[in-house]
Amino acid sequence: MNQYLMNLAVNTEEKQLLARLDELARKASQGIAGRSDFLDLRQQVLGEAVAAQYPEIIWQMDGGFEGAERKRLLLAPAWENDDLDHHIQCLHIKSTDKMGASPGHRDYLGAIMNLGLKREKFGDILVQEREAFVMADRSLSDYLCQQLERVGHSKVVTEAVDMKEPPLPEAAPQQINCTVSALRLDAVLAAACRISRAEAAELIAAGQVRLNHQVTEKNAALLEEEDLLSVRGYGRIRVDKVEGVSKKGRLRVRLSKW
Description:
Blueprint: H1 3-8, H2 12-29, E1 34-39, H3 41-51, E2 57-62, E3 71-77, E4 88-95, H4 105-113, E5 122-128, E6 131-137, H5 141-147, E7 150-151, E8 154-161, E9 174-180, H6 185-193, H7 197-205, E10 209-211, E11 214-215, E12 228-231, E13 235-245, E14 251-257
Antiparallel strand pairs: 1-3, 2-3, 4-6, 4-8, 5-6, 7-8, 9-14, 10-11, 10-12, 12-13, 13-14
């Protein structure tokens, strides 16, 4: 792995990921197609940087549907067909309980991981009322269909659905209008997630916050319109517009939250 790629890594975990992706790209250049695990937004940036170092291969990012957040890096020698197989299966998880609270994203995530699967082995989880659609590696499809029988307090049925036209829900963002003392990361994070500035600072210090796909530990980092935050346990937040100053001298900000 060349020095350029090594310099992209900000921690040991990213160095290890770069090494794995570089090995996949090297094999593709030798004629062996391959694919990564599901990557988050920051990891996708690293994957693209690796793939760009090998002009003799073809590659793409694919999460199973248009607009997916978590994607796999697909790599193959340049003489192969451009239609790369992502090996992703869409699974439909439907609650059979008519009463009680509908499971949320955390419930589905926890139920799948409690079956012994690591987060990188499955992609986006799209939640609707009493059902969800999950992108998973095709090799795990039968296992999940057989073993995933409960999510939270709800009994569920899990089945594979046709990937040609999966009935995916539209994930509409929540619109948030708020005021902040300044466009600091901790202030915006606190307002968007309805937590205190101190709690926001703890999330940042723990490495739970990514700014434009990059982990940051700077509470005072200044945000701009179109900046994207990814916060573990809280979702994604985008700064849509700064709409001026209130009578009390605070900035009025419009945010989108997923």
